[in-house]
Amino acid sequence: MKMELLSLLNELKQMKWIDLSHEFGENTPRWPGFESLRKEIKLEFGEYPVRAYQYSFPGQYGTHVDVPGHADVNGRTLEKIDIKECVLPLCVINCSDKVKMNSDYALSLDDIHDYEKIYGKIPKGAFVAMRSDWGKRWPSQEKFQNMDEYGEQHYPGWSLEAVKYLIEKRDVTAIGHETFDTDPPFCKEQRYFQAECYVLKQDRYQIEMLTNLDKIPERGAIIFCIFVKQTNGTGFPVRCFAICPNK
């Protein structure tokens, strides 16, 4: 059995590994209601043989996970997410061309149906990601928010109808996107955070501010979502990556 696992690992390492997380630091784009990361040196070379920082930042910072407890007082928190939920088949729905035409675009039920006509039915327990190429605006806070002259933000997201379908009809485990929020902020019908709260209240999780989805095949990859096991945590920065077939 040990040799079988080693052989499997060696086989996986011959495939494409794509990092889906942005770096995060003091200048990371963030939801405008949050402050930027602050760090303070606690131990420094010269006085000590090591260097260490103390960090202060919101849990929902940079590429991060939102777990059910973020929207549901009785929802599961970070330490209660089973590790098997962190490794999932990845389906990527490409809306990037539509987003180029409309920054407020919401992934629709038609987009899901069109995807399944080409790539087959989304499997139970999948992670479904919306590709918008919004992550290419990194690391500009201004470009991520994309505010108009009236102070309204414009960036894409999911329709409430689409996320309901994915959960109720396809029983997905998680969703992900490249923007600050699940809901397009200019979509008045979904204010405030209706799609996001729906997802989390169905005991699912989501990853926000993903990147490099343009490097992932629409179907056939596996996503790994690695985050800390914080007691009563509602969200935290993550290191997400995908393993993809070479062809």
From TrEMBL:
Database matches in Pfam families: Cyclase (PF04199)
PANTHER family per the UniProt record, alphabetical: CYCLASE-LIKE PROTEIN 2
Family annotation (SUPFAM superfamilies): Putative cyclase (SSF102198)
Top-rank lineage group of the source organism: Bacteria
Name of this protein: Cyclase family protein
Signal peptide as annotated in the record: none
Gene Ontology MF terms in the entry: arylformamidase activity
GO terms for biological process, alphabetical: L-tryptophan catabolic process to kynurenine
InterPro entries, per database record: KFase/CYL, KFase_sf
